[in-house]
Amino acid sequence: MTTSGRLPYPIALTGDGIQLREWRDEDLEELVHLLDEPDIARWTPMPSPFDPEAGVAYLKRARQSRANGQRIQLAITAFGDKPVGEVLLFGVDAGLREAELGYLVGASYRRRGFASTSLSLLSGYARSTLGLSRLLLRIDPANVASCAVARRCGYQLTGEPPILQEGPYGSSSLDTWELVSAGGGTRLERLRNVAARRYGRRG
Ligand SMILES: CC(C)(COP(=O)(O)OP(=O)(O)OC[C@H]1O[C@@H](n2cnc3c(N)ncnc32)[C@H](O)[C@@H]1OP(=O)(O)O)[C@@H](O)C(=O)NCCC(=O)NCCS
Protein backbone atom coordinates (compact mmCIF):
# COMPACT_ATOMS: atom_id res chain seq x y z
CA MET A 1 0.00 0.00 0.00
CA THR A 2 1.16 3.56 -0.54
CA THR A 3 1.53 5.85 2.46
CA SER A 4 -1.78 7.48 1.47
CA GLY A 5 -3.50 4.09 1.90
CA ARG A 6 -4.35 4.03 -1.80
CA LEU A 7 -3.51 1.23 -4.14
CA PRO A 8 -0.80 2.15 -6.68
CA TYR A 9 -1.88 3.31 -10.13
CA PRO A 10 -0.96 2.68 -12.89
CA ILE A 11 0.85 -0.64 -12.67
CA ALA A 12 1.90 -3.43 -15.02
CA LEU A 13 2.98 -6.92 -13.95
CA THR A 14 4.73 -9.40 -16.19
CA GLY A 15 5.55 -13.09 -15.87
CA ASP A 16 5.16 -16.52 -17.45
CA GLY A 17 4.19 -15.18 -20.87
CA ILE A 18 1.49 -12.78 -19.76
CA GLN A 19 1.25 -9.12 -18.91
CA LEU A 20 -1.29 -7.57 -16.55
CA ARG A 21 -1.97 -3.98 -17.52
CA GLU A 22 -4.53 -1.23 -16.97
CA TRP A 23 -7.70 -1.32 -19.08
CA ARG A 24 -7.92 1.25 -21.89
CA ASP A 25 -10.87 2.75 -23.77
CA GLU A 26 -9.63 1.01 -26.94
CA ASP A 27 -10.29 -2.37 -25.27
CA LEU A 28 -14.08 -1.88 -25.43
CA GLU A 29 -14.79 -4.28 -28.29
CA GLU A 30 -12.59 -7.02 -26.83
CA LEU A 31 -14.03 -6.47 -23.34
CA VAL A 32 -17.58 -7.00 -24.62
CA HIS A 33 -16.46 -10.10 -26.51
CA LEU A 34 -14.89 -11.53 -23.34
CA LEU A 35 -17.65 -10.69 -20.86
CA ASP A 36 -20.82 -11.36 -22.85
CA GLU A 37 -20.79 -15.07 -22.06
CA PRO A 38 -22.95 -17.48 -19.96
CA ASP A 39 -20.26 -18.61 -17.46
CA ILE A 40 -19.33 -15.01 -16.71
CA ALA A 41 -23.03 -14.20 -16.22
CA ARG A 42 -23.48 -17.21 -13.93
CA TRP A 43 -20.43 -16.87 -11.73
CA THR A 44 -19.67 -13.14 -11.60
CA PRO A 45 -21.78 -10.03 -10.87
CA MET A 46 -21.46 -8.79 -14.48
CA PRO A 47 -24.57 -7.48 -16.22
CA SER A 48 -25.94 -9.81 -18.89
CA PRO A 49 -26.22 -9.33 -21.79
CA PHE A 50 -22.92 -7.49 -21.54
CA ASP A 51 -23.37 -5.08 -24.44
CA PRO A 52 -21.23 -2.11 -25.55
CA GLU A 53 -23.19 0.19 -23.22
CA ALA A 54 -22.34 -2.09 -20.28
CA GLY A 55 -18.75 -2.12 -21.51
CA VAL A 56 -18.47 1.68 -21.56
CA ALA A 57 -19.89 1.87 -18.02
CA TYR A 58 -17.53 -0.91 -16.89
CA LEU A 59 -14.42 0.81 -18.26
CA LYS A 60 -15.51 4.11 -16.73
CA ARG A 61 -16.00 2.54 -13.30
CA ALA A 62 -12.68 0.69 -13.60
CA ARG A 63 -10.89 3.95 -14.39
CA GLN A 64 -12.55 5.70 -11.44
CA SER A 65 -11.81 3.00 -8.92
CA ARG A 66 -8.21 2.79 -10.17
CA ALA A 67 -7.75 6.56 -9.97
CA ASN A 68 -9.11 6.75 -6.42
CA GLY A 69 -6.97 3.79 -5.33
CA GLN A 70 -9.84 1.53 -4.20
CA ARG A 71 -9.08 -1.53 -6.27
CA ILE A 72 -6.66 -3.06 -8.71
CA GLN A 73 -8.39 -4.11 -11.91
CA LEU A 74 -6.11 -5.28 -14.69
CA ALA A 75 -6.55 -6.72 -18.15
CA ILE A 76 -4.74 -10.03 -18.66
CA THR A 77 -2.95 -9.77 -21.97
CA ALA A 78 -1.18 -12.34 -24.08
CA PHE A 79 -0.59 -12.66 -27.83
CA GLY A 80 0.78 -9.14 -28.03
CA ASP A 81 -1.45 -6.64 -26.33
CA LYS A 82 -4.81 -8.37 -26.66
CA PRO A 83 -6.89 -8.79 -23.46
CA VAL A 84 -7.90 -12.39 -22.71
CA GLY A 85 -9.40 -11.77 -19.27
CA GLU A 86 -9.23 -9.76 -16.08
CA VAL A 87 -7.79 -10.09 -12.57
CA LEU A 88 -8.80 -7.92 -9.62
CA LEU A 89 -7.89 -7.04 -6.05
CA PHE A 90 -10.47 -5.23 -3.93
CA GLY A 91 -12.01 -4.96 -0.47
CA VAL A 92 -8.70 -4.06 1.15
CA ASP A 93 -8.73 -4.01 4.94
CA ALA A 94 -5.48 -2.26 5.81
CA GLY A 95 -5.86 -3.12 9.52
CA LEU A 96 -6.16 -6.84 8.91
CA ARG A 97 -3.76 -6.53 5.95
CA GLU A 98 -6.21 -8.49 3.82
CA ALA A 99 -7.91 -8.20 0.45
CA GLU A 100 -10.07 -10.23 -1.89
CA LEU A 101 -9.05 -11.20 -5.41
CA GLY A 102 -11.07 -12.25 -8.44
CA TYR A 103 -10.52 -13.32 -12.04
CA LEU A 104 -12.19 -14.21 -15.30
CA VAL A 105 -10.95 -15.45 -18.66
CA GLY A 106 -12.78 -15.26 -22.00
CA ALA A 107 -14.35 -18.55 -23.16
CA SER A 108 -12.01 -18.98 -26.15
CA TYR A 109 -8.88 -18.55 -23.99
CA ARG A 110 -9.67 -20.95 -21.16
CA ARG A 111 -7.62 -23.93 -19.93
CA ARG A 112 -4.30 -22.45 -21.00
CA GLY A 113 -3.23 -21.35 -17.53
CA PHE A 114 -4.15 -17.66 -17.93
CA ALA A 115 -6.27 -17.44 -14.76
CA SER A 116 -3.80 -19.27 -12.55
CA THR A 117 -0.78 -17.41 -13.90
CA SER A 118 -2.55 -14.07 -13.40
CA LEU A 119 -3.80 -14.92 -9.93
CA SER A 120 -0.30 -16.03 -8.89
CA LEU A 121 1.25 -12.83 -10.26
CA LEU A 122 -1.22 -10.54 -8.53
CA SER A 123 -1.09 -12.54 -5.28
CA GLY A 124 2.71 -12.25 -5.28
CA TYR A 125 2.50 -8.50 -5.88
CA ALA A 126 -0.10 -8.12 -3.12
CA ARG A 127 2.12 -9.91 -0.64
CA SER A 128 5.52 -8.50 -1.56
CA THR A 129 4.76 -4.96 -2.72
CA LEU A 130 1.47 -4.12 -1.00
CA GLY A 131 2.36 -5.95 2.21
CA LEU A 132 -1.01 -7.73 2.38
CA SER A 133 -0.74 -11.01 4.24
CA ARG A 134 -4.29 -12.40 3.95
CA LEU A 135 -5.47 -12.91 0.42
CA LEU A 136 -8.97 -14.27 -0.05
CA LEU A 137 -11.15 -15.68 -2.82
CA ARG A 138 -14.91 -16.23 -2.61
CA ILE A 139 -16.08 -19.11 -4.80
CA ASP A 140 -19.25 -21.16 -5.22
CA PRO A 141 -18.25 -24.83 -4.84
CA ALA A 142 -20.21 -25.61 -8.03
CA ASN A 143 -17.77 -23.43 -9.97
CA VAL A 144 -15.28 -26.25 -10.51
CA ALA A 145 -13.04 -24.25 -12.82
CA SER A 146 -12.58 -21.47 -10.30
CA CYS A 147 -11.99 -23.94 -7.45
CA ALA A 148 -9.28 -25.60 -9.58
CA VAL A 149 -7.61 -22.22 -10.17
CA ALA A 150 -7.66 -21.47 -6.44
CA ARG A 151 -6.12 -24.84 -5.54
CA ARG A 152 -3.46 -24.58 -8.22
CA CYS A 153 -2.38 -21.18 -6.87
CA GLY A 154 -1.99 -22.36 -3.29
CA TYR A 155 -5.30 -21.21 -1.85
CA GLN A 156 -7.16 -23.43 0.62
CA LEU A 157 -10.70 -23.45 1.96
CA THR A 158 -11.14 -21.70 5.29
CA GLY A 159 -13.74 -22.81 7.79
CA GLU A 160 -15.79 -19.64 7.38
CA PRO A 161 -19.53 -20.00 6.80
CA PRO A 162 -20.62 -19.59 3.17
CA ILE A 163 -21.82 -16.19 1.96
CA LEU A 164 -25.20 -16.43 0.24
CA GLN A 165 -25.79 -14.28 -2.83
CA GLU A 166 -28.78 -13.94 -5.14
CA GLY A 167 -28.09 -13.20 -8.79
CA PRO A 168 -30.22 -13.03 -11.93
CA TYR A 169 -29.02 -16.51 -12.96
CA GLY A 170 -29.46 -18.27 -9.66
CA SER A 171 -28.21 -18.12 -6.12
CA SER A 172 -24.62 -18.63 -5.09
CA SER A 173 -23.14 -19.87 -1.85
CA LEU A 174 -19.63 -18.51 -1.71
CA ASP A 175 -16.92 -20.34 0.21
CA THR A 176 -13.89 -18.38 1.42
CA TRP A 177 -10.45 -19.53 0.29
CA GLU A 178 -7.19 -18.17 1.63
CA LEU A 179 -3.66 -18.19 0.28
CA VAL A 180 -1.68 -20.32 2.69
CA SER A 181 1.69 -20.61 1.02
CA ALA A 182 4.87 -19.15 2.54
CA GLY A 183 4.32 -15.88 4.34
CA GLY A 184 0.67 -16.55 5.12
CA GLY A 185 1.22 -16.44 8.86
CA THR A 186 0.86 -19.19 11.43
CA ARG A 187 -2.33 -21.20 11.83
CA LEU A 188 -3.00 -19.29 15.07
CA GLU A 189 -2.66 -15.93 13.27
CA ARG A 190 -5.04 -17.11 10.55
CA LEU A 191 -7.61 -18.24 13.12
CA ARG A 192 -7.29 -14.89 14.91
CA ASN A 193 -7.99 -13.08 11.67
CA VAL A 194 -11.02 -15.26 10.93
CA ALA A 195 -12.33 -14.40 14.41
CA ALA A 196 -11.55 -10.70 13.90
CA ARG A 197 -13.55 -10.63 10.68
CA ARG A 198 -16.44 -12.48 12.26
CA TYR A 199 -16.63 -10.70 15.58
CA GLY A 200 -14.79 -7.43 14.99
CA ARG A 201 -11.25 -6.46 15.86
CA ARG A 202 -10.18 -6.07 19.45
CA GLY A 203 -7.22 -4.16 20.75
C1 LIG B 1 -12.57 -19.85 -13.75
C2 LIG B 1 -11.80 -19.37 -14.99
C3 LIG B 1 -11.27 -17.97 -14.70
C4 LIG B 1 -10.61 -20.34 -15.24
O1 LIG B 1 -9.78 -19.75 -16.23
P1 LIG B 1 -8.67 -20.60 -17.00
O2 LIG B 1 -7.72 -19.63 -17.60
O3 LIG B 1 -9.34 -21.56 -17.88
O4 LIG B 1 -7.97 -21.42 -15.83
P2 LIG B 1 -6.54 -22.14 -15.93
O5 LIG B 1 -6.26 -22.49 -17.35
O6 LIG B 1 -5.56 -21.31 -15.20
O7 LIG B 1 -6.81 -23.50 -15.16
C5 LIG B 1 -6.37 -23.74 -13.84
C6 LIG B 1 -6.84 -25.10 -13.41
O8 LIG B 1 -8.25 -25.17 -13.51
C7 LIG B 1 -8.63 -26.29 -14.30
N1 LIG B 1 -9.85 -25.97 -15.00
C8 LIG B 1 -10.07 -24.90 -15.78
N2 LIG B 1 -11.32 -24.95 -16.28
C9 LIG B 1 -11.88 -26.08 -15.80
C10 LIG B 1 -13.15 -26.68 -15.95
N3 LIG B 1 -14.12 -26.12 -16.72
N4 LIG B 1 -13.40 -27.85 -15.31
C11 LIG B 1 -12.45 -28.42 -14.54
N5 LIG B 1 -11.20 -27.89 -14.34
C12 LIG B 1 -10.94 -26.74 -14.97
C13 LIG B 1 -7.46 -26.48 -15.23
O9 LIG B 1 -7.43 -27.77 -15.78
C14 LIG B 1 -6.32 -26.22 -14.32
O10 LIG B 1 -6.15 -27.36 -13.49
P3 LIG B 1 -4.73 -28.01 -13.21
O11 LIG B 1 -4.10 -27.13 -12.16
O12 LIG B 1 -5.08 -29.35 -12.71
O13 LIG B 1 -4.00 -27.99 -14.51
C15 LIG B 1 -12.70 -19.33 -16.24
O14 LIG B 1 -13.29 -20.59 -16.41
C16 LIG B 1 -13.78 -18.26 -16.15
O15 LIG B 1 -13.55 -17.11 -16.49
N6 LIG B 1 -15.00 -18.64 -15.69
C17 LIG B 1 -16.11 -17.67 -15.57
C18 LIG B 1 -15.81 -16.57 -14.56
C19 LIG B 1 -15.51 -17.14 -13.19
O16 LIG B 1 -16.03 -18.18 -12.79
N7 LIG B 1 -14.65 -16.42 -12.44
C20 LIG B 1 -14.32 -16.81 -11.09
C21 LIG B 1 -15.39 -16.37 -10.16
S1 LIG B 1 -15.06 -16.96 -8.50
Instruction: Output mean pLDDT.
Output: 90
Instruction: Give the CATH class.
Output: Alpha Beta
- Low-pLDDT stretches are none
Number of strands: 9
Order of helices and strands: EEHHHEEEHEHEEEH
Annotation field: number of helices: 6
The Rg value, from CA coordinates, equals 17 Å
Keywords: Transferase
InterPro entries: Acyl_CoA_acyltransferase (IPR016181), GNAT_dom (IPR000182), Ribosomal_N-acetyltransferase (IPR051908)
Domain N-acetyltransferase: 18-183
Organism: Actinoplanes friuliensis DSM 7358
Please give the structural blueprint.
Elements: E1 13-15, E2 18-22, H1 28-35, H2 38-43, H3 52-67, E3 72-78, E4 82-93, E5 98-105, H4 114-128, E6 134-139, H5 144-152, E7 155-157, E8 163-167, E9 170-179, H6 187-199
Parallel strand pairs: 5-6
Antiparallel strand pairs: 1-2, 2-3, 3-4, 4-5, 6-9, 7-9, 8-9
Helix pairs in contact: 1-3
The structure holds coenzyme A.
Coenzyme A binds at residues 39-40, 43-44, 102-105, 110-116, 139, 143-146, 148-149, 152.
